[in-house]
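Database export, one record per block. Field names are fixed; values are copied verbatim from the stored entry.
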Amino acid sequence: MGLLQGFSVAFLPENLLAALAGAALGTAVGVLPGLGPLGGAALILPFTYAMSPTAAIIMIAGIYYGGMYGGSTTSVLLNVPGETASVVTTLDGYPLTQKGRAGPTLFIMAVGSAIAAFISLVLVTLFAPWLARFGVNFGPAEFFAVMTCGLIVLSRISGGNLVSNLFPLMLGILLGTIGQEPVTSIARFTFGYFPLIAGLELTAIAIGLFGIAEIMRMIEKRESIPKIMRIRVRDMLPSREEWRRSWAPWGRGSLVGFVFGLLPGPSAALSSFASYQLEKKVSKGRHEMGTGAIEGVAGPEAANNAAATSGMIPVLALGLPFSATLALILAALMIHGIQPGPLLPVQHPDIFWGVIASMWVGNVMLLVLNIPMIGIWVSMLKVPPYLLGAFVLVIAAVGTYSVRHNIVDVYLLAGAAGVGYFFNKLNFSLSPLILGFILGPEIEKHLRQGLFLSRGDLIYFIERPIAATLWGLTIAVFLGVIIYRLLGKDAARKMEKFELED
């Protein structure tokens, strides 16, 4: 019943237009190396303020999975991944292009993405009602545990060392405390500067960190683009053998992606790598992997799209984003006065199911729209970086100022761009910063609520079963990472000793 309601919402004219615009914009930013879906979502965020909550989320979600499709297109044609999840596609996608099978590869990729979205949608339909019933048991202790534990786990498994993740995370939480405290109305960290009373604007920080900073890096690199090949639509139909070899990888990739989408970490990228490794072990064409096997494209592309769909469940049903792009979706909900969490499917079923259903509609749009327009998307790479950078800078500044009509936000945009640029230079992760900024105030709110209910007794936060389980799992993950790394170092030392003796 909920899914039928979702499709009725997704097929409203406003939401169909939002899905189409999101998919098209996502493909465009995915094609451009360096910008990616995260930068595109950040740039479009201020323009969603005038939209309904459902349309706003549908549009940003469209940019998310459209960006993956666009990044995969350049991976296949040019060996240039548009974003992290598309790196795996280069391993077999570009060799297939060199064999003259670029068109069928792109067709297989597009169809697989739509099929994966449908499979993931069916699994979400079965899984979401159970999660909603389970979430009714959540109180301040459980919300505090799931958000705090989620941030801690993300800081350990998202790559890089502990400092490169924890420092931006703590900085983001600190920035989130600037402004008027919600309970006592005391101004915090404003230093007597009145414009800071309202706090820092998320839009300015997100666009600066992920939009302007990436454009600065792209201009700095000045990478040359290989010669773009011409693909005719009539040459894109796969052969019967390519169809036959794609069905099983689509199914396996969809299941892998669905599972990874429910877990903390960069689910789209991790699911792509996991799917590729699985195909190398079980696929009948595994002996061709790395030299141009269609399984090496069909599986990972289905996986990253399924992960994008199932990754919406933790955001909508728990209020916990597992990536920076999903954090912007969470922010868009909160901007529109919608509180994500276990009660969302009950209190706002139109938003929950409408967004989920729209992802399948959007993937069908990608299939129908983008195959004839592949040449147009790839030709965007011919735009000089300095022209693209100037265009993005103007859009970013106008969009940031339009939110609160406050020139301080434009200054904040410039400061965030500088921080993002230098953090990239120093190999600091940016995702924990934005996650900390968004979730920090929510963690503080649930902490204060819990302390009020327990009259200051901290045992309240670990004595409830769900909260205790979450804390236990977090400790297990921490210990597991430490043991894994110690064992890895020990194995490396033994191998080095063996080679020296040999």
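Remark 1: The mean pLDDT is 78.
Remark 2: The radius of gyration is 23 Å.
End of record.
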